[in-house]
């Protein structure tokens, strides 16, 4: 098992896992994933085993303090040395769930964010996942302004140095 960043050859497998993991309105399209990998491959953390992607986390870095819907499809908003690491997706292939892969990746994202001196990490999630993210030190900031996919999201923030 290893954790690495994305390369162009990963796009089809990343798309396949995203599509089977999220409702159509919520998941990223192949085009969106392709743009993200082209612009910020270092903001994809992939857990791979025996040459197959088992789980991944992706997002962008920015100086914006809150995750906005525009960020999901506008890869050009990425700022390599941005103050905040945004997370768009935390995804585990359906046949690999329950093995702790998402947790391993989240700890890697946290470690990388610290190394890059980010102020912290921001993500949105559904209410049922609040407890999952709280175990990593994320604080619930309440209902997000995001309406991505027509769903109610909660914004979670993990600030470094706290």
First-to-last CA distance: 31 Å
Overall strand count = 9
What's the number of helices? 5
Q: Tell me, rounded to a whole number, the average pLDDT.
A: 96
Q: Given the helix and strand composition, which structural class is it?
A: alpha+beta
Helix content percent band: 25-40%
Strand content: 25-35%
Q: Which strand order do you get reading across the main beta sheet?
A: 4-5-7-9-8
Using the alpha-carbon principal axes, give the shape: globular
- Main pleated-sheet profile: 5 strands, mixed
> What's the alpha carbon Rg, rounded to whole Å?
14 Å
Short description:
The protein is α+β, with helices and mostly antiparallel strands and 162 residues long. The chain has five helices and nine strands.
Written description of the protein model:
- This protein is α+β, with helices and mostly antiparallel strands.
- Helix content is 28%, strand content 27%.
- It is built from 5 helices and 9 strands, in the order βααβββαββαβαββ.
- It has helices at residues 11-21, 30-39, 69-73, 101-115, 130-134, and strands spanning 2-4, 44-49, 52-58, 61-62, 84-87, 89-92, 120-125, 139-143, 154-159.
- Strands 4-5-7-9-8 form a 5-stranded mixed β-sheet. It has a 4-stranded antiparallel β-sheet with strand order 1-2-3-6, with helices on both faces.
- α1 packs across α2 (30-39).
- The relative contact order is 0.16.
- The model has no long low-confidence stretch (mean pLDDT 96).
């Amino acid at each position: 098992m290893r954790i690495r960043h994305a390369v162009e050859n990963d796009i089809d497998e990343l798309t396949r896992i995203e599509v089977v993991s999220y409702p159509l309105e919520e998941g990223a399209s192949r085009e969106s994933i392709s743009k993200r990998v082209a612009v910020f491959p270092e903001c994809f953390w992939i857990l791979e085993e025996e040459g197959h992607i088992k789980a991944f986390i992706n997002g962008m870095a920015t100086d914006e303090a809150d995750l906005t819907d525009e960020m999901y499809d506008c890869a050009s908003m990425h700022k390599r040395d941005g103050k905040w690491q945004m997370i768009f997706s935390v995804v585990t292939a359906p046949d690999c769930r329950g093995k702790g892969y998402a947790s391993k990746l989240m700890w890697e994202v946290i470690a990388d964010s610290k190394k890059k001196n980010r102020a912290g990490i921001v993500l949105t999630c559904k209410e049922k996942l609040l407890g999952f993210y709280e175990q990593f030190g994320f604080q619930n900031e309440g209902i997000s302004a995001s309406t991505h996919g027509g769903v109610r999201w909660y914004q979670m923030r993990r600030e470094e140095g706290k």
